[in-house]
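Page 37, continued from 36.
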């Protein structure tokens, strides 16, 4: 078991049955409930979509290591993030919950001030050096894209 689980805008229930999702649909600029339902069925394969192995919101939480969760208020996954928080605290799991107003899905990866704050917190949690950890990751991703782009033939 890891020492801590850090979740960024997690998809916790592939069924998308939480009634709170309906109120979030008009706010989320990235995710569409109907598309996610189709993708969830594909992800589950032949498994029951309520099975905790594909919808972890339904799994046992007692005994898990501390959980840190970051979510925006403008994403479909907010309703289930709130539900997970309630379930985890009820089962005695240490749960560090961060809800960011007007942020959308996976906002911590974007080059915005709110994201930088989250990345610094995560770097501290995992014992990294705040000034370097995510910057190295993003630099390596950028370099990988640049290498691929440089190999492509130029188009007129």
């Amino acid at each position: 078991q890891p020492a801590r689980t850090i979740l960024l805008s997690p998809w916790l229930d592939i069924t998308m049955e939480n009634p709170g999702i309906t109120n979030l649909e008009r706010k989320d600029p990235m995710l569409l409930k109907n598309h996610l339902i189709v993708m969830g069925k594909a992800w589950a394969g032949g498994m029951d979509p309520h099975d905790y192995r594909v919808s972890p919101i339904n799994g046992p939480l007692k005994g898990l290591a501390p959980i840190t969760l970051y979510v925006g208020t403008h994403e479909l996954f907010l309703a289930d993030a709130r539900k997970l928080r309630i379930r985890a605290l009820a089962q005695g799991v240490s749960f560090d919950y961060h809800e960011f107003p007007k942020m959308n899905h996976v906002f911590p990866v974007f080059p915005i001030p709110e994201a930088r704050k989250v990345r610094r917190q995560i770097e501290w949690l995992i014992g990294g050096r705040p000034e370097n950890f995510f910057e190295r990751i993003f630099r390596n991703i950028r370099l990988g894209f640049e290498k691929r782009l440089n190999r492509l033939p130029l188009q007129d």
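Residues 133-151 form the longest helix (19 residues). Flag for discussion at group meeting. The chain has one domain: 5-151.
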